[in-house]
Specification:
The protein has helices at about 15-40, 50-65, 85-95, 100-125, 125-140, 140-145, 155-170, 170-185, 190-205, 220-235, 235-250, 255-265, 270-285, 290-300, 305-310, 320-340, 350-365, 370-385, 400-420, 430-435, 455-465, 490-505, 510-520, 550-565, and strands spanning about 425, 445-450, 470-475, 520-530, 530-540. By secondary structure, the chain is mainly alpha-helical.
């Protein structure tokens, strides 16, 4: 999409003084980026842990801190490589266990990732495009929300950007190093070197055809085979991790349930096709991303400024370099449509900044007021921090996750204050939030009766077992838009709901008033924020809890048992 020209020359033959100057410049830039994003995230830094943070990554990092074990035991191992969790544990060891420390440590990784975006864009084009691309990436809602969350996708993406920059500069050892670290951050990061290796092999097959101009060497040969062999080295650390994980657990790719959900059940053509559409949307249009991609597409109808203005100079992305980026983007789109039970937007973080870089470079070389367009793009991204779209999305993709956390803080503190010894019916992740005080929601563990979700079927089953619990904590497990775009098309809506239910685990949560009627209780606390809600339902017999009854000692024993487990 970007205007094609010659490849940018490699930065060889630097003097030690020049390298020292660039290192100082990079350090200052990193510090500036970190300070800016730290200040922007300041209201979020002390929030308790959210969703997968609480369910896997924080418990896994805590196990490293307390026991030194790289394989978690306080949660079921998913075989995720331990690099990011070890990074968090290191900061806890140095500065203490607290959400502020965790989120500050993740912001350091986010700043490093943005430095990678800047470096990659600068290698491909020039500083102006690099600054604009870094700005837009930093404020893109998914990247912004993930920047302070204790999850692994953003860290892996940042290391991939550094690896790509080194690869484009033909700094082989550096590219292997960065790709190896990316693989140790998240297993799917090996898709980037795999895409590059595949592209090199395709170049060998096309070296006698007219398509050879799509490759950097023009006439791919033995050098491509060498690159493929060297790229393969970056996968070895991940392979060693899997070998170690197998020796300790008997599983290579995590527990059987994790493998079934993320791989075995996703290999169905109709599901792949639907997920592919979603993945394409996530890299070209999701949460106002369409503003920059549509602007770049429209700019393609305009003659390059070089042809209209003889004085205009701009280092454009060469066609071979574009093809390298497209190979990584397309590999991620296809692979992540094929695997992964949840089609989460954060899985596409290694691809989205590449789309942003190409789009902004296209605007720069074709449209005179390109800076104004970049400003509008950034403004649109910032608006999407607060504005929830009229379609379903994950709260972790913008500041809706803050609404979720505040709702759960309020609801669970009410629950702890009023029913400290009660047995609580709820679903994950609240089941972890109220049984593990170190997640930041309550001060002491509560006894939990867990169900899968708050669908009608699950609630009816829970109603048959109401003697097993005293209080129910119900909440929205999915964001529900106020107005649904497709509701006016009844047949399409029914078909869409059926597909989502079959292939993506969709369900509708029973609202609090209906849940109270089903469970035979009354709503004693409820709160809602922008499509998310939480409620506490007191079962009628809880009225008798002040008298000596048989279930109270049992509840206390269960609480004590929880304390011992944790």
């Amino acid at each position: 999409m970007a205007c094609a020209l010659q490849n940018k020359p490699l930065n060889d033959g630097q003097t030690p003084e020049r390298r020292q100057s660039e290192l100082a410049h990079s350090s200052l830039l990193f510090a500036a980026i970190f300070v800016i994003i730290f200040l922007l995230h300041l209201p979020l830094l002390q929030l308790p842990y959210f969703w997968d943070e609480a369910g896997y990554y924080v418990p896994a990092a805590r196990d490293i801190l307390l026991t030194g074990s790289l394989i978690p035991h306080s949660t079921v191992s998913n075989a995720h490589p331990p690099l990011v969790m070890a990074w968090i544990a290191l900061w806890w060891k140095v500065a203490g266990y607290a959400p502020l420390v965790t989120r500050s440590a993740m912001l350091l990784l986010a700043a490093f990732a943005l430095m990678g975006v800047f470096r990659l864009a600068e290698v491909l084009t020039d500083k102006k495009v690099a600054i604009a691309s870094t700005l837009c990436t930093a404020v893109y809602p998914v990247f912004f929300a993930q920047s302070s969350l204790a999850q692994v996708d953003l860290a892996a993406a940042g290391l991939i950007f550094w690896g790509l920059a080194a690869y484009l500069q033909r700094r082989t050892a550096a590219s292997i190093f960065w790709f190896a670290l990316a693989g140790l951050s998240k297993e799917t990061a090996i898709l980037a070197p795999a895409a590059l290796a595949g592209w090199e092999v395709a170049g060998l097959l096309a070296r006698q055809s007219s398509l050879r101009k799509l490759w950097r060497d023009g006439e791919p040969g033995l050098g491509s085979l060498r690159h493929v062999a060297l790229l393969s080295i970056s996968v070895l650390p991940l392979a060693l991790w899997y070998g170690y994980h197998y020796s300790q657990t008997g599983y290579v790719f995590g527990n059987p349930e994790f493998f079934r959900y993320n791989v075995a059940e996703t290999l169905e053509f109709r599901r792949f096709f639907l997920a592919l559409i979603l993945r394409i949307w996530q890299v070209v249009g999701y949460l106002h991303l369409w503003i920059v991609t549509l602007a770049a597409l429209l700019a393609m109808w305009v003659l390059p400024r070089r042809q209209r203005d003889s004085g205009f100079e701009h280092e454009r992305i060469g066609l071979p370099d574009q093809m390298i980026l497209y190979s990584v983007i397309s590999t991620y789109v296809i692979a992540m449509a094929l695997i992964g039970g949840a089609v989460l937007a954060r899985y596409m973080l290694p691809a989205v900044p590449l789309v942003i870089i190409v789009s902004i470079s296209t605007l720069r070389c074709r449209v005179r007021p390109w800076r104004a367009i970049v400003f509008l793009v950034a403004l649109g991204f910032v608006a999407a921090w607060f504005w929830n779209p009229p379609y379903g999305f994950s709260p972790e993709d913008n500041l809706a996750y803050r609404d979720y956390v505040i709702l759960h803080e309020n609801g669970e503190r009410f629950l702890e204050a009023r029913y400290p010894m009660a047995r609580v019916l709820t679903a994950w992740p609240a089941s972890d939030e109220i049984s593990r005080p170190w997640l930041g929601y309550i001060t002491r563990p509560m006894s939990v009766v867990r169900i899968e979700n708050f669908s009608l079927d699950q609630m009816l089953q829970a109603a048959d077992l109401r003697t097993n619990y005293d209080v129910a904590l119900v909440f929205s497990t999915k964001y529900e838009p106020g107005s649904r775009l497709w509701d006016r098309f009844q047949r399409f809506t029914e078909l869409r709901t059926r597909w989502k239910t079959r292939f993506f685990g969709f369900h509708r949560d029973v609202p609090p008033a209906a849940a109270a009627r089903i469970l035979g209780g009354r709503v004693v606390f409820s709160e809602q924020r922008q499509g998310l809600w939480i409620a506490v339902i007191e079962i009628e017999r809880v009225e008798e809890a002040h008298e000596p009854t048989s279930h109270l000692p049992i509840a206390a024993a269960e609480v004590n048992g929880r304390r011992e487990e944790n």
